[in-house]
Specification:
The protein is α/β, with parallel strands linked by helices and 369 residues long. It has one domain: Alpha-Beta Barrel (TIM Barrel), CATH 3.20.20. The chain contains ten helices and eight strands. The chain has helices at residues 17-28, 33-54, 71-76, 117-126, 138-144, 158-178, 208-223, 254-263, 308-318, 347-365, and strands spanning 77-91, 94-111, 132-136, 183-188, 233-238, 268-272, 292-298, 327-331. The strands form two sheets. The protein has a six-stranded parallel β-sheet with strand order 3-4-5-6-7-8. The longest helix has 22 residues, at 33-54.
Length: 369
């Protein structure tokens, strides 16, 4: 049986200024990698202690060793090139375009290291509590890392690339579980592109429906058949974009719910429900009976602390469409998916949010394992 982990969180935490400064110095060549790692280690040690104090059920290293949510894969695999473009981000005050990094496959992929092995080993050395490790979903990579006229010089088809990326991800999931990691989570910000006003058609490439099917099938291939020992779980976070308290996607889950929830053999789906841009809870009726939904009701984008009563009311609303016993609670996304683009709240406010999640979850479901 997979673990319930009723008080969950998505993974990334606000980077302390010491870590941000050290990484800038490392990228400028003024400190060595070993010195950066010492600074990261100290920050991770403190973050683990503060997570434990919050009462949250699972602990992460805050993704403190990553520049952003894709770094684990990009830094471990050759054959990928980076470019920069302006991306439109949404906030309550309007749309802002920010320079963003994009990656594309520019050669045959060659893995030269683990995606997250070193991160997991250090995290597990600090605590006996359940450790969570996050990985970028392979479906997102195949969707966003394919570049017509470049990638197709090295891969005969998207299917060939998808099979290779899924296999790399699957091997990492299996290695992490074998090493004692109890929770592996795939993060896919790509599904938001098939919801609401953000849905796009592509000139010269697959249309939206075909792209969605590629994404689902690739994520499914990475998880299908992976053995979970008792107390181990695999999650899929359906992200809507996260940088500097802004977002990319909005719209009800209805267009993708039945296909996504039924096809990807994750044990739990982490869904963003912090405000009305996510629509209602009706799509939860498509979640299979053997899967759990983590309701992302607490905003990681705002310093305003929600109330336990308000959260419980929303949990009750969701329970009209899915059994209460198959629900859990978390913030809607990480606090800093991009290291230099952390959300606009303080570290203390961040941990207060985690404590609220933990306290509310125990009030609803009791102690979790």
């Amino acid at each position: 049986m997979t673990a319930e982990f009723r008080a969950d969180h998505v993974g990334s935490l606000l980077r302390p200024e010491s870590v941000l400064q050290a990484r800038r110095r490392r990228e400028a060549g003024t400190i060595e990698a070993d010195e950066l790692r010492v600074i990261e280690n100290e920050a991770i040690r403190e973050a683990v202690a503060r997570q434990q104090d919050s009462g949250i059920d699972v602990l992460t290293d805050g993704e403190f060793r990553r520049r952003d949510f894709r770094t684990g894969f990009v830094d471990a695999v050759d054959g990928i090139t980076m470019s920069t473009f302006d991306m439109p981000w949404h906030a309550s005050e309007g749309v802002t375009r920010l320079p963003s990094k994009a990656f594309f496959v520019s050669g045959r992929l060659r893995q030269r290291g683990r995606l997250a092995g070193g991160e997991a080993a250090y995290l597990r050395s600090l605590t006996s509590a359940p450790a969570k490790v996050t990985l970028i979903a392979p479906g997102f990579l195949v969707d966003r890392f394919w570049k017509d006229g470049v990638t197709d010089r090295f891969y005969a088809s998207r299917a060939e690339l998808a099979a290779e990326v899924a296999a790399i991800t699957r091997a990492e999931i299996q290695a992490l579980i074998a090493e004692g990691v109890r929770y592996v989570q795939l993060d896919n910000p790509g599904y938001g592109a098939f919801l609401g006003s953000y849905v796009r058609e592509r000139a010269g490439g697959p249309d939206a429906q075909a792209a969605f099917e590629w994404m689902v099938d690739t994520d499914r291939a990475a998880v299908a058949g992976v053995t979970r020992p008792a107390g181990v779980t695999i999650g899929l976070h359906v992200c809507r974009g996260n940088q500097s308290s802004m977002w990319l996607g909005e719209g009800d889950y209805q267009p993708i719910a039945e296909r996504l929830f039924g096809a990807v053999p994750a044990d739990r789906f982490l869904l963003e429900y912090d405000d009305d841009r996510a629509g209602g809870f009706e799509p939860l009726q498509f979640v299979p009976d053997d899967k759990l939904v983590v309701l992302g009701l607490v905003s990681s984008k705002s310093p305003v602390l929600e109330t336990a009563d308000a959260l419980r009311r929303r949990i009750d609303e969701a329970a009209k469409f899915i059994d209460l016993g198959r629900l859990a609670l978390s913030p809607q996304c990480g606090f800093a998916s991009v290291a230099e683009g952390g959300n606009r709240l303080t570290s203390d406010e961040q941990y207060a949010k985690l404590a609220l999640v933990a306290g509310t979850a125990r009030g609803v479901w009791g102690e979790s394992g």
